[in-house]
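To: structure desk
From: M.T.
Subject: fold request, one chain
Message: Could you run this one when you get a chance? Sequence is below, nothing fancy, just the single chain.
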Amino acid sequence: MVKPRDRNFNKNTQIVMWELTRACQLHCVHCRAKAQTRRDPDELTTDQAKRVIDQIAEMDHPLIVFTGGDPLERPDLFDLIDYAVAKGHRVSLATSVTPNLTRSVIQRAVASGVSQFAVSLDGATSQTHDRFRSVHGSFKQTMSALQNLQESDLSVQINTTVTAWNETELEGIADIAEQYQINLWSLFFLIPTGRGRASMMLDAEQNERVLNWLSEQSKFRPFAVKTTEAPFYRRILSQNRQQLTGRNITDGDGFIFLSHTGHVYPSGFLPLSVGHVTRTSLATLYRESPLLLSLRNRELRKGKCGVCEFREICGGSRARAFAATGDPLESDPGCSYIPHILRKSDGMKESRT
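Reply: Done. Structure tokens follow.
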């Protein structure tokens, strides 16, 4: 298996995020998938899913993240996990915290060779977290799940969607993550897709404040920190002279999203389908799609993202650009940074060095 730093992202993706189902017992107010209580009859079948796993192997065995909805709503989940692991894939599992997530399920994940297990935590209090989930008692269930995961041999990840609702509780969430000895805190910066509303988003200045706070947290917290749809976090780390780890993986560039019905997208937050895996192989779609080729070409960025000196290590969120303008190559309005070339042309004083 090729290491991420050595992988050619024009040829092979690093991560396949696979929405196995949209079925879920929760009704989260910010859900990208608009999850439903019942499974879609047009979901890929078990045999189709196994053929897709074979396709994914053609791209030098990228990480497969089984998600949803709630992947535990699919009775063939562990059959697919076993098949993927046997094919040489690393498999991560991102589930909802419902009565489906039992101690025995966690033990089975360990036995099946799942390398990482992710659950969501969107508040440091039951009031906030349960408000996101629209289910009373969800926070208590999540604490129980984290305890069970801590006692397993799994690498544990907490996913948090950053919004105006929970910005003030991020430090409390970090404390909980430390308490349960998680390995990775992954923060998603809201894109208004699915049930997510633009009114829940932070503005560019708020994003900057949160990301600078995160860069400070990353210096002393015992877990790793990463962001989704906030690639300018890497710019902030660079400005703060902190080490950049790994590659800049963004929508369609080292990352691909597969829907429950087999449609392929640059990410789950950028709703532009590039094809269907039952008609064209995933490898062919990833390597040859005009949209994905354009997303991987940083020289095609428009506006301030196109002239920014941090274009290569950041590049802006293509999903947010599309949500705001209808053009995935436009500037990311979630970033407050003004590139040096624009400061000079406008006679602006530099606020940072």
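Reply (cont.): The longest helix spans residues 204-220. Let me know if you need anything else for the meeting.
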